[in-house]
Amino acid sequence: MLIDHANKSITITRQAELLGIARSTVYYEPVVDLYGLELMRFIDEQYTKTPFYGFRRMTVSLNRNGYLVNRKRVQRLMRLMGIEAIYPKPNLSKPHPNNKIYPYLLFVAFLPASRSRGEGLFAPTYKRLAQPFLQWIYFDIFFQFKETTN
Questions:
Q1: pTM above 0.90, yes or no
Q2: Is the C-alpha dihedral spanning 75, 82, 28, 21 positive or negative?
Q3: Strand 135-142 relative to strand 121-128: parallel, antiparallel, unpaired?
Q4: Of 99, 108, 94, which Cα lies nearest the Cα of 141?
Q5: Could you give the CA distance from residue 147 to residue 65 in angstroms, rounded to a whole number?
Q6: How far is CA 31 from its chain centroid?
Q7: Alpha helices in 3-150 (DSSP H)
């Protein structure tokens, strides 16, 4: 540490003041939680065997092996250790920006030659059938024909 306890010419108070730290920081000794270290060791071993366990399943595993602990403590310890369950993350189905986007050919086939820029519109229409919760879906194709004057 930067504080010299053996120095008699500058007091500890003055040394702490010069360093810009509180005097209580000089005397502080951190408390070591042995039970927490044991839990972290078990979590690490279990995570090596089953990396898909999240904090809830890890809590069940700890409780079955005789460690009485709740999920919040396991969640905090796993976050402290920097480990998390391996699972599919969101947005995995987004296309890569370099992938080519192909036109919808069925839509283009119904367009007149003068309307090839996609100005037509597919409008889904829902019709209720006799059975509840069933719907019949069909598409009406609408085109907006503009009058051309030359």
A1: no
A2: negative
A3: antiparallel
A4: 108
A5: 79
A6: 33
A7: 12-19, 23-27, 34-49, 55-64, 71-81, 105-109
Query: Which residue in the block uniquely carries the two structure tokens 């007091």?
Result: 11
User: What are the beta bridge partners of residue 125?
Assistant: 138
Residue pair 43/81 in contact (Cβ under 8 Å)? The answer is yes
Work out the number of other CB atoms within 10 angstroms of the CB of residue 35. 10
Tell me, what amino acid is at 68? Answer: L
What are 51-110's pLDDT values in tens digits?
999 999 999 999 999 999 999 999 999 999 999 999 888 877 788 889 888 776 665 555
CB 53 within 8 A of CB 47: yes
Neighbours of 148 (CB within 10 A): 6
